[in-house]
Amino acid sequence: MIIQEVIDHIEEFAPTAYAEDFDNVGLLVGDAQTEVNGALITLDTLESVVDEAIEKNCNLIISFHPIIFSGLKKLNGKNYVERTVIKAIQHNIAIYAIHTALDNQYKGVNDMISEKLKLKNRQILIPRRNSIKKLTTFIPTADADKLRKALFAAGAGSIGNYDNCSFNLEGKGSFKPNEDANPTIGEVGEVHFEEETQIGVTYPVHSEDKILKTLFQNHPYEEVAYEISSLGNSHQHLGMGMIGELENETEEEEFLKLVKKTFHSGCVRHSKLRGKPVKRVAVLGGSGSFAIEQAKKAGADMYITADLKYHDFYKAEEKLVLADIGHYESEQFTKNLLHSYLTKKISNFALILADTNTNPIKYI
To answer: Its family (predicted)?
Structure first.
């Protein structure tokens, strides 16, 4: 198996089309056509992680965080980023990063946090907008059913918990083939009227190439009439953060102790306790101060995230409890998620969970 085939599996799960604009995801180091000996799965890629990959004969590192985030202008080994990249190149080790593509995945980072906390009735905290498109096409009625089924199989027509969704309108289309045409129906130089069905289906942005390929392969006309429009609708299964409910209300301090134990946090920094039980919990792995207001609007009793600054804690305004469990701690199970997914897809080389602890923060 080559690296590109591994990437295809990863991006089927978490398409890079849904990574945030500021991010740097995908294959950061290496040639996608290289054959894979083994893959090391890690939260961060550091020199020590590259050393572990060398020791375990892995020529691919699959990392949550990208080692190259800002542009590299030099490769002189003067900082940890440059040294890591140089060592990977010297040993022909490729590095792939997934980061916010997985953050935005429904079964991604925040679902793992919610699973550890046993939250029920989970929903995306900040559903992603502008991630849905609509295809409208016109086809002879006799061929409409075949095309609909093919588009559904390609990933079109899914809305929330429903699939095979489409809108169909019967009508009559007209066209006149010119002398260069090779019409499937009708004659050159003659106006032809055909009983047609207008089919409308929505699809996720990342599937567009596949959807259009399916359309062209299953449409009988030489010239396929179709329209594509971008929708501002929120995608229910894409976005940042998650909110859910505990099975039973829990006293605040007791729940914070449970969170600390579950995520092996050196400490949990939190805002003022309200003296109210915790039932509804919002979570967002990594730096999550930007979602505080959304957690309030969603009615969360507690919001669990990381990297909160001094003034962020004032934003609680006693409407909820803010809990900072640490960046590494909130995302530590991500590599387990990737390992579990890929082992179900790939069996012809070793997929190894990195042993290296890459948490740069220590507690006394």
So the answer is: Belongs to the GTP cyclohydrolase I type 2/NIF3 family.
Residues 192-208 have pLDDT tens digits of: 999 999 999 999 999 99
Q: Which amino acid is at 312?
A: D
Residue 16 DSSP label: G
Instruction: Return d(Cα 226, Cα 215) in angstroms, integer.
Output: 9
**Of 31, 39, 33, residue with least CA distance to 348:** 39
Q: Is 301 helix (H, G, I), strand (E, B) or coil?
A: coil
What is the strand order of the sheet 269-270 is part of?
Answer: 120-129, 234-250, 278-287, 302-306, 321-324, 269-270
What pLDDT, in 10s, does the model give residues 103-118? 999 999 999 999 999 9
In the three-class reduction of DSSP (H, G, I as helix; E, B as strand; rest coil), residue 213 is classed as helix
Q: How far apart are CA 273 and CA 256, in angstroms?
A: 10
Domains (range + CATH), the chain: 3-102+333-353 (3.40.1390.30), 109-126+239-324 (3.40.1390.30), 131-231 (3.30.70.120)
Residue 269 phi, psi (nearest 5):
-85, 130
Average pLDDT rounded to a whole number, residues 153-180: 94
One-letter amino acid for residue 210 of the chain: K
- Report whether pLDDT(349) > 90: no
For residues 129-145, average pLDDT? 96
Three-state secondary-structure class, residue 162: strand
| Cα gap 287→89, rounded to integer Å | 30
